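Might I ask for a little of your time on a matter of protein folding? Here, with my thanks, is the record as I have it:
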Amino acid sequence: DAQVLAANRPHYENIALAYPIRQTYLPKPQEMSKTSIEHILVANLTVDTLGCVADAIPENPADSDLVRISLPLLKAFDFVPGMVGSTYVTQILPVSLDFAPANYFPTVQFPIDSAGDIRNGALYSRALSQNGVTLPAIERFPSIFATVHATDTPLVYQHVLVSLDLDSTGHPVVITPAQTNCAAFTLQMLSAANWASYSPLRLDGVPRGSRNFLLISLFPGLNFPTRPWPPNPPLAFIRYQRLMFQVLADTVGLMAPPIPKQALDGTFTFSGPEPPRTDSLSVLVQIDTLGRATAVRVYPQRRRTFALALTKQLHFYPGLDYSGRPQPFLGLVTASALNATEIRVQYSWLR
């Protein structure tokens, strides 16, 4: 059972990431208390061998000022330092900071929390990649065939989760089904996984064998048969195409986050009682196991009528665990007007 393998593990190979000794609560910087828009940023912390924050660099250069004024808050955290084998090492640690106008304390997420648990799979994978680990990746995947149509509206899209062991050259040595909700296509997907090309796991540049999962998702929004991935010449992928094939190097967090059923390219045609305006809004949404979105918080509050109408028109495939079971999810949606009828919608968990 893939879910059994999804136990939280604060080690990957011989690398242990740094994590905070305790949760620290400090008020958000005064400059952030003046904004009415929720803002999430990712900063890369340098955590030294004593567990102290030596530096913080924004992932997005546009957030430089926010990271600078947040540095005292970040330096207030003491860490269990990272290790390679039995040796303490300096590490780069990506952290997420959520500055919500209604919250006095910012929400800070780490790859591994103060209890030693992996709470954010995306941050965990990102942290590994910044500390000498190059995770396996798909270099090429053959075209696949499926009787899935754009008019299909299932609760959960069809998918095949494959256990994939790669040798130090990236060649598959073991390919077995882990779980699927489309048995009719499983053999074809196993064959496609065998013919695909992969890059191997690398630790400090040295190739290694690895155990992974390969998730193949058959979204109704795709055209079947698909083209070999990636196409040549490269095309601007819509979101479904980017998420169609994924190597999952560790079973932490969700197998797949919620996926929007519309606004795939980020453009959404809105019809409601309040037309879009030129300013933007942020909506913290709760997505239930049926893919229904509910607005939990809206910023700015004066846009609440529009935000509630928008969330009623957004429909999702729910997030899935490694057994394929739908799971509730909390995430941030931002929207801004493009013209009188179209708005740009972004989902913080899919960037």
Notes: Residues 64-75 form the longest helix (12 residues). The chain has five helices and 28 strands.
